[in-house]
Amino acid sequence: MAAASTSAARPGPSTTVVLALAAAAAALVAMFGEKDGFSATTVACALVGLVPWALVVSGVSVPPALFTLLALPPGLAIVVVADNSGGMFPLMMLLVWLARSPRSLIPTIVTATTTVVAITMLTMEKGVDESGIIYFLAGLGIAWMSGAMLHRQENLTAQLRSMRDVQVEQLAATERARIAREVHDVVAHSLTIVMLNLTGARRALATQPERADEALARAEVVGRDSLDSIRQVMGQLRGAGGGTTLPQPTLAGIRALVDGARGAGLHLDVSMSIADVAVDPTVELVAYRVVQVALANVLQHAPGAASTLDVDVTGGRLVVAVANAAPARPVAGPSGRRGLGTLGMAERTRAVGGSIESGPTADGGWRVVARLPMLDADALDRDALAVVADGPPDEVTWLTSTEPHAH
Description:
single chain; alpha+beta; five-stranded mixed β-sheet; 13 helices; 62% helix; disordered C terminus
C-alpha cells in the first residue's frame, strides 16, 4: 500500500522530454516515411534537426530564436532539397515548441510562413491537388493549437502551485498563531498565580508557616497543571501521537480558575447563569480562555483590586464579562501597547463569530466583555455546568463571596 502511494505521488516525465521524444519520432517518420525518401540527405538533416531538442532535454536554455535557427533549416532541407514530405513532421513539432514557449511570436510567425511556402512548393512539384495543401495546413494549425494549449496549461499549473504555496504558508502561520495563543494563555495565567503564591509564601514563612505551606501547595498544583497543558501543546507541534491528549477546558473549568485567582489574593465576585445552556465545545474553550487571560491580567496589573466575573446568556449569546476596580497601587509596566493576551482573546472570539470589547472604566479600572454565539452542542455535561452555576454543596457561597481565600 505504501509502495503504491509512493509511485502514485512520483511525478511523470516533463513536457520537454515528451516533446523531444515526439520530435525524435517525427525525425524517424521523415527518414522512413516514404519509400523513396530515405537518403543520406534526409538522415543527416533529420539528425541535425534533433540537436536543439537534445540541448533542452539536457537542461540547456535555448532561446526560441536560436531554437528556430537550429531546427528550421534541416526540416526545410528535407522537404525542398530531398523532396520528402516527411520533413513536414519535424517542422510541425518545431511549431508546437515555439507556440508553447513564451516570447516566441516572431520565430513562430517565421516558422509558420516558411513552412507554408515549403508546403506550396512541395505540392506544386509533386502535382498534388489542393486537398494535400489543406491537410498540411490543418496539421500546422493543430500543431500551433497544441503548443498554445500546453503554454496555457503550464501557466495555470504554475499559478496553482503558487496559490498552494501561499495557502500552505497561511495555514502554517495560522497554526503557529493558534499554538502561540495556547502557550501564552496557559503560561501567563499559571505563572502569574504561581508567582503570587510564592510571594505570599515567602512573606508568611516566618510568622505563619501553615499559610506559607498552603500557598506553596497551590503553586505546586498550578505548576503541574501548567506543565500538563504545555506537554499537550508540544504534542500537537510534533503531530498526532506525539504527546498526551488531555480534555479541552470547558465552562466547568472556570471554577478552578476562580479558586486559583482567589487563592492568589484576588477579591472576586462571581455570577454565572448557565445551568441549562447548551454550548458548543469550541465556544466553551473560547469562554474559558477569555476568563483565564482576563483574570491573569487583573492579577498582574491590578493586584488587590475588587473584581467581578459575570457569565450568562443575553440576547441569544453567551456573554463573559470580567471587570476590576482601579488598583490600590499602580503596577509599573509598558503602556500604550496591546498585549498578546488581549490580542489572543480577540482572535479567539472572532474565530467563532463572536465579538469582544476591552478598555478602561470610568472609575479607573478595566473591563473585558466577550459575546459568543450559542452554537448547538451534541454532547453536554449538564452536571458539570450545574456545579459551575450553583457551586458544590459545601461551597455554595463561591458564586457571591467577595472575600479572597487565605493568602
